[in-house]
């Protein structure tokens, strides 16, 4: 029996259908609300608004559950790899051996940027933020692929998707090298995805960078854990742009821009800056916690809190464990890790955070692992973008394959001046 929602407005009763997802999530379908009642809904920040039905990722924020195409993140983190998970997210099933080899070959065949792209790097000031370069270069690289436009965007999707996943890594590494005044290092066909990224980042013309296996595993895990996260700010941005039938590269470049904000993907950089500030001030963290609770301080405990998770972010738990394992394997310590652990301990026992259900999120420990690998702080959000690329592409594909897809165009409630007549300059105030 289908459940309906009834709304009483102006002495009339209106009925609306409801829908239920495969995990029991429920929604009131209000597509006829305005035509029936003249009203729209208003939900600042979309905390209660579903923008789409999607089959890619499931999150239960109360239970701290995250699944990619039904597979628990804990299992994928332990048994899978970033490239296998990328295929899973985009194509909806775990690849056969042949499918994975073909996908990996496609990434290798499409990993080199068009040679003319190098000139664009020359144009950026040396201290440009790599997220600005990343979004610009993703769009610039699309100029070299006229087949991206129009229906070819759909027909040659597999090539474009592989090109984007592969090149986002090359662009990131080139941006880093340029920002340090270093010669760019080209990818090696024999190298797999993650080793090739580290090779392009850290190998020198005279010395090959040879990462330890624990470093490779930790970085691949970081990419895997960031691969998708349902309708977060940047993925919703990608869907918004894709809904106008813009091409894949334009949609991804928009996603990079949304991810950059410190409330979203930029939080991993903000966490390390926060930990450095606490470390430099000699504070043991307690003073900072008090400031983060004070609305007037303008400070937040970065890496804590989440719009959906009202429990521990499962990714944060996995990253924290991987952090400990990496530090043991590399025989290293980091005062920032100790500060982070103290902050977590203090916050999880503080009523302010407990009452608001604020727990560590994916960004709280990810920066510490990236630091240990030798990634510079300003590159942290770029690595988040590399990891999130398959999720953005999967959401783009879901839109272009949906025959019911239409351009996203929200409404608003206007609160500006009511009608008024033009005032000639001579009649205006000074
Ligand atoms: C990511 O959406 C996703 O899935 C994102 C992501 C992904 O994989 O794509 O998971 C990645 O972006 C993780 C979040 C990274 N951002 C941060 O760590 C920045 C710090 N966190 C916050 O700014 C905040 O928690 C957000 C942005 C993450 C969530 O913001 P909401 O849901 O809008 O919550 P809110 O700002 O309305 O906060 C509710 C209350 C407020 O206090 P009251 O007004 O109720 O008194 O909690 C407080 C906030 O002041 N609060 C915090 C806090 N986060 C929320 N107070 C101090 N420190 C914090 N971190």
Describe this structure in words.
- The chain has 430 residues and is mainly alpha-helical.
- It has helices spanning 33-37, 73-79, 82-91, 97-109, 117-123, 130-142, 152-155, 157-179, 193-202, 213-225, 233-242, 248-259, 267-281, 286-293, 314-330, 335-348, 351-355, 363-373, 380-400, and strands at 4-9, 12-20, 26-28, 57-60, 65-68, 71-72.
- Strand 5 and strand 6 form a beta hairpin.
- Helix 3 (82-91) runs parallel beside helix 10 (213-225), helix 6 (130-142) packs antiparallel against helix 8 and helix 10 runs antiparallel to helix 15 (314-330).
- The longest helix has 23 residues, at 157-179.
- It is globular.
- The termini are far apart.
- The mean pLDDT is 95.
- S-citryldethia Coenzyme A (SDX) binds at residues 45, 229, 232, 263-265, 267, 292, 300-308, 356, 358, 361-363.
Largest sheet: 3 strands, antiparallel
As an assembly, this protein is single chain
**Helix percentage range:** 40-55%
The proportion of strand residues reads 5-15%
Question: What bound compounds does this protein have?
Answer: s-citryldethia Coenzyme A
Going across the biggest sheet, name each strand in turn.
Answer: 1-2-3
Radius of gyration using CA atoms only? 24 Å
Element pattern in H and E? EEEHEEEHHHHHHHHHHHHHHHHHH
- In round numbers, the mean pLDDT is 95
* Count of alpha/pi helices: 19
Structural class: mainly alpha
Number of strands: 6
Distance between the termini: 67 Å
**So what's the overall shape?**
globular
Low-confidence stretches: none
Summary?
With 430 residues, the protein is mainly alpha-helical.
